[in-house]
Specification:
Elements (H helix, E strand, L loop, with lengths): L2 H29 L6 H22 L1 H13 L9
Helix pairs in contact: 1-2
Length: 82
């Protein structure tokens, strides 16, 4: 895992959480919810879940490539087969 992958994962997670919380904050401001910021909390949680999904997908990219290569090798095209 190279340093650029670590930066990409961190940036994706940070942006997803920030955008979710920002959207929730905007909804709270528009609806007048001041005492209990329900939309901000929901936006933060949804942004966190979305960020984790992005991180999961990003981290599985090398595994998918590796499994495709292994599937190509084991497709039955051996040089020794009659």
């Amino acid at each position: 895992m190279g340093p650029m992958l670590v930066v990409r994962v961190g940036f994706e997670l940070l942006v997803a959480i920030f955008l979710g919380a920002l959207a929730g904050f905007w909804l709270d401001r528009e609806t007048g919810r001041v005492l209990f910021p329900l939309f901000s909390l929901a936006g933060f949680l949804l942004g966190s879940a979305g960020g984790m999904l992005l991180v999961y997908r990003t981290m599985n990219i090398p595994d998918a490539r590796k499994s495709k290569e292994e599937a190509g090798r084991s497709s039955g095209h051996d040089e020794k087969s009659p």
